[in-house]
Fold this protein.
Amino acid sequence: MAFKVLLIDDEPLALEGLQLWIPWENLGFEVCGVCGNGSEGLKHMEELKPDLVMVDIHMPVMNGLEMIAEWRRRGNDSTRFIILTGYSDFDYTRKALKYRVSRYLLKPLDEEQAELEIRQMGQELAKEREQLYVGQVAQREKENLAIKEALTGKELSTEAAGVLESLSRSSHGWNVCLVQIAAEDYCRWSTVAAEFLDRSKAMYVIRLRNDLVSIVFGSAESASHGTSCTARQRLEELARRLADFRAFMAIGEAVSSLTFINHSRVTAEKALLHTFYNTNGNGVMDYESLKDLTFQRHHDQVELAARILGAFQLIDHDAYRSAADYIEQSFRQLRIHPEEARKYVIYLLHEIRAYMRSELAEDSGAPNRLFDIPNLDERLLTWNDLIDMLQSCGRVCFELLLKENASETQGIVQDINDYIHEHYREGLSIKMLAERFFLHPAYLGQLLIRKNGIGFNEMLHNLRIEEACRLLQMNQYKNSEVSEKVGYSTYHHFLKQFEKRLNMSPNEYKKHV
């Protein structure tokens, strides 16, 4: 990033010359402004914050040295100055030393000397910027480590306590926003979040575990007034930017000092639990508006499980759907604790799998592949996710139970076989067939083997090679064209399947027919 330079001289031609004669861009600078006296210069410096100011000594209203003296008096010590002076003003130049003027250039300017001086000035500024950045990074790391100690409830070290005490003074209040996100999405998430949160120096992003991130932020208002409007708006904007992620966010209760930030984290975790029943998608939950809501841990597990398994015994899909709907509504209404709700649905899924295993042939292998059962520690699963699993599981299992009826099974297989014969030239897959006929892919594969005697892939290749033989006999197409017409994306794959079935290449086949 280029350094900013402000040019000040009461002679318009001199200003024009400074802009034209000196290759500012090549020297790492950009001219951010020009003006004609010291009074205007003070205003420009306040607005533009230049890194370097080149200023003439003799100017109306306020001369260069008066301007520099006033600027230093206001506490601006980092700005660099180069004064422009004539031989007769050398005494002024010596006086300028007490105002920490970096360099002086004699008028009329020697362009080569001016370029050399400015280049050296740029190198000094670059070194200062680098040192400042390293110092800021080191300080930020100290602050992050100290805040993490406080967040996790550890006994603070003397150094950490000092850092937190000093840092706490920079804001009236402090708070925590927890972000729960899949561990595999963390790198992508952190890129989005960093781009947004880096705007604020009073926000600290600290990873507490693989799927949980803490955003510690300073509030513009006192802790008694809760989360500041600005911080809340920033976090809500971040939530909107995370629309492509499965991410949950919750804000805790504000505290007056970072020393007590663990309290904010604990209350944010309580608020985060409420995302389990939230149906509004990505958003920010706030402990302040949720603290009076409580979860229950007791519900009629036995009766509900009996209704679910009873529906299987009667092969009554409508009764199953009704029981699943009742579970969805009652748990949400009673606000059963997320941990209990998660355990219960996973328990039901295991019971259903066990029942299906007892009802189906052991050698089919279908029960273990009907549906996936999530782990208990999958915190990103919402109540809607679990109910969808329960309903999907029912659809698959009842389809399977019904298809055990031989006549019904034969009917569906005939429909599937007809569809394969009609579409084998296309990019057909077992997954596509399963979606079309509303069957689980694993079950569909077993069904085709049981009824046809061969698997889906074998049947597909047989049909394609049979059609290829017919086309080759016509002797109207190249081998590669035949391959494409029967549905192969590569000639190599076609050749492999052809030779496997006929023990000869397409060219050899054409010689024999």
User: Anything to note?
Assistant: The beta strands are 3-8, 29-35, 52-56, 80-85, 103-106, 173-181, 203-209, 212-219, 247-251, 284-286. The chain has 21 helices and ten strands. The radius of gyration is 37 Å. The chain has a mean pLDDT of 86.
